Amino acid sequence: MILLELFFTFFIIGLFTIGGGYAMLSLIQTQVVTEHGWLDEHTFTDIVAISQMTPGPIGINSATYVGYTVLAESGAPQILCVLGSFTTSLAVVLPSFLIVLTMCRVYYKFSNNAVFEGFMNGLKPAVVGLIGASALLLVTPENFPDWKSWVLFAGAFAAAWIWKVNPILVIVAGGILGFLLY
């Protein structure tokens, strides 16, 4: 029963997420922590941190880890936990796959239509809002950034935005400075 519930929950998350994995985080947090109570806030924050460190999209990584953790915390055998990971991963990407498949057909049919182009342009502010909501949800009292983090953020932002420094160099420099500061 829990696998079906996980599939349905993550299918809905995948269906209503526009803007990628970071926009998806606020929906995952709402469903997993608030609505279903499968995980607590601290565990979810750990999942986000681990999902950022592992290769691949953060939304899929988070879904995979949540699927495993929810079943592991319920005392399920490891094979069922792995099946939970597979279930949530499949559920979160399936809507995107189906939507992209449909959108390709629609795009080819309506690509020169002004109403269609207006709709697509209208989605941009919604995506920015979802990403901003994800960032705000992750700022909790237990992981509120200290002054060093704000300085690193400002430096990385300025390097990338103003001076157009290569993002890989910004990441490497941030890692080295973070190691030295902490």
Report on this structure.
- This protein has 2 domains: 2-143, no CATH class; 145-182, no CATH class.
- The chain is built from 8 helices and no strands.
- It has helices at residues 2-16, 21-35, 41-53, 58-73, 78-110, 114-138, 147-161, 167-181.
- Helix 1 (2-16) runs antiparallel to helix 2, helix 3 packs across helix 4 and helix 7 runs antiparallel to helix 8.
- The mean pLDDT is 89.
Structure summary, number of beta strands: 0
Number of helices: 8
Contiguous uncertain segments of 5+ residues: none
* Count of domains: 2
Backbone CA Rg: 19 Å
Helical residues, percent: over 70%
Shape: flat
The biggest sheet amounts to: none
Rounded mean pLDDT is 89
Intertermini distance:
45 Å
H/E order of the elements?
HHHHHHHH
**Per DSSP, what share of the residues sits in E-state strands of 2 or more residues?**
under 5%
Output the structural class.
mainly alpha
Give the helix/strand layout.
Layout (H helix, E strand, L loop, with lengths): L1 H15 L4 H15 L5 H13 L4 H16 L4 H33 L3 H25 L8 H15 L5 H15 L1
Helix pairs in contact: 1-2, 1-5, 2-4, 2-6, 3-4, 4-5, 7-8
